[in-house]
Design brief:
Largest sheet: 7 strands, parallel
Number of strands: 19
CATH topology of the largest domain: TIM Barrel
CATH architecture of the largest domain: Alpha-Beta Barrel
Distance between the termini: 33 Å
Radius of gyration: 22 Å
CATH superfamily of the largest domain: Metal-dependent hydrolases
Structural class: alpha/beta
Number of domains: 2
Mean pLDDT: 94
Low-confidence stretches: 2-21
Strand content: 15-25%
Length: 471
């Protein structure tokens, strides 16, 4: 993130009008600071206004006279979680993705999109309710680029970074409605590339996101050249390049173009030493999004089979509108194209997603084993990858892939903040950083399912009881 943007966000943060306890001390908990260091037993966290004043033992952090004291004996404190891949302009269900299943009579897309723009607080609440205190929107409608400043002023919202519309060679008319509601910008020519990046700069995007699907052989050489040009234009504009590339060839090309963040797993084949070397050369971050593809398959299968998929929402963080739509599979069945009407198709989709999940898990092990940086990310907003609670599925899938709980905690906190360019501000519990943290009743070092045991969320010094954030 550029220094002027960081400075502007911090100026906004300093101007909170919400009353926050001047000094608060959280005492007695086991403190897991997100750096990967050993936990602090019977720790003390002193919060001065919006920031952490001291994090350490009782000897290192004496409680200041007059501080409001909160006894957390027997609890566990971690940094707030960071989801490094979300989409505010998607709903978590099929009504937000008419390119996957169009139902214009039932869910007119323009109305859906306008409702999302009018009320992003719905997702703010879902994220904070789950313990996510920062999110990276890596592709959305132009209005999403205004969310970072808005969210920074609001202690009931997560921090936001936003990339704005995606640059792509793929034509998806269903997601480009008009001059206000569009998801994609073109890259067919060199002029397109320059114009698309200029538009992103003008709307305040903080990164350039390319949706780079494997191009057809006849266009491969030309489009590869365009991707390299996008990388050069992003560097000239001092914006990070982030790329959706799920095949190994395209992921390598993205890294050669200068990508700092790969927002999905490589899922067509196993990664090799060349790929790992390119990650290292770029100091790039790998965001595996293990669960989103399977959730897409479950969503479509639930409609084919008219069997609503049960929502995994342990803390009541999904709003009633979304719950109702996920349950209304029968209404969508009439809109299924002929090719999707048999139950056999549903089972085939589920089987394929399971096979891809194995490849993604192995690639995650290889990337992590090689010492590359991994950030937890969900692709929330896609069907059944719900804003907020889908982070539980993602972390638990990482654990099932064989990663250690201590490493996953770092990926879900510190590394997500690094991906957002905000590690100086949050992601770990260290003096001087914003007071963004979670209080759990169970130990996430034993099992990352412990993040489901959330009882309190602190965002910039404001302590929220989790039950007060639930729908």
């Amino acid at each position: 993130m550029s220094r002027p943007l960081v400075a502007a966000l911090m100026l906004v943060a300093a101007s909170y009008t919400d009353a926050v306890a001047q000094t608060r001390a959280l005492v007695g908990a086991t403190v897991i600071d997100g750096t990967g260091a050993p936990a602090i037993d019977q720790g003390v966290i002193v919060v001065d206004g919006t920031r952490l004043m001291c994090v350490g033992t009782a000897t290192e952090c004496p409680v200041p006279p007059g501080a409001e004291r909160t006894d957390l004996t027997g609890r566990f404190v971690t940094p707030g979680m960071v989801d490094a891949h979300v989409h505010f302009s998607q709903t978590g269900w099929l009504d937000g993705r008419p390119d996957g299943l169009a139902a214009p009579d039932l869910y007119p897309y323009r109305e859906t999109a306008l409702a999302l723009r009018a009320r992003p607080e719905r997702w703010f609440r879902s994220y904070l309710c789950t313990g996510i205190t920062a999110v990276y929107d890596v592709g959305g409608h132009p209005w999403t680029t205004a969310l970072p400043a808005r969210a920074e002023r609001d202690v009931a919202a997560p921090h936001v970074r936003a990339a704005g519309p995606l640059v792509t060679h793929a034509a998806v008319p269903a997601l480009n409605v008009d001059d206000e509601i569009y998801t994609f910008l073109p890259m067919a020519t060199s002029d397109d590339v320059r114009a698309s990046v200029r538009r992103l700069v003008a709307m305040g995007a903080s990164a350039v996101k390319v949706w780079y699907l494997a191009p057809p052989p006849a266009r491969r050489q030309a489009l590869d050249a365009r991707l390299m040009e996008v990388g050069a234009a992003a560097r000239d504009a001092k914006l990070d390049l982030i790329v959706h590339a799920t095949s190994l060839r395209e992921a390598k090309l993205a890294l050669r173009a200068g990508a700092k963040l790969l927002v999905h797993s490589v899922q067509d084949t196993l990664v090799d030493e060349e790929f790992l070397a390119l990650l290292a050369a770029n100091d790039a971050i790998y965001a595996p999004t293990l669960v989103v593809a399977g959730n897409w398959s479950r969503a479509i299968a639930s409609v084919i089979l008219n069997a609503p998929y049960p929502i995994d929402d342990p803390n009541g963080c999904v709003d009633s509108n979304t719950v109702a739509k996920v349950a209304a599979t029968e209404a969508l069945r009439a809109h299924l194209p002929e090719r999707l009407r048999s139950s056999e198709v549903a089972y085939q989709r589920l089987e394929r997603s399971g096979a891809a999940r194995w490849v993604m898990a192995e690639n995650l092990r290889r990337v992590h084993g090689a010492g590359r940086t991994v950030a937890a990310a969900t692709d929330a907003g896609n069907p059944l990858t719900l804003h907020g609670p889908s982070i539980h599925q993602e972390l638990e899938a990482m654990q099932a892939a064989g990663l250690s709980t201590s490493d996953i905690i770092v990926m879900a906190t510190r590394n997500g903040a690094l991906a957002m360019g905000r590690l100086d501000d949050f992601g770990t519990l260290e003096a001087g950083k914003l007071a963004d943290l979670l209080v759990l009743t169970e130990d996430p070092r034993a099992d990352v399912r412990a993040f489901r045991s959330l009882t309190y969320v602190m965002r910039a010094g404001r302590l929220h009881a989790q039950r007060d954030l639930a729908y």
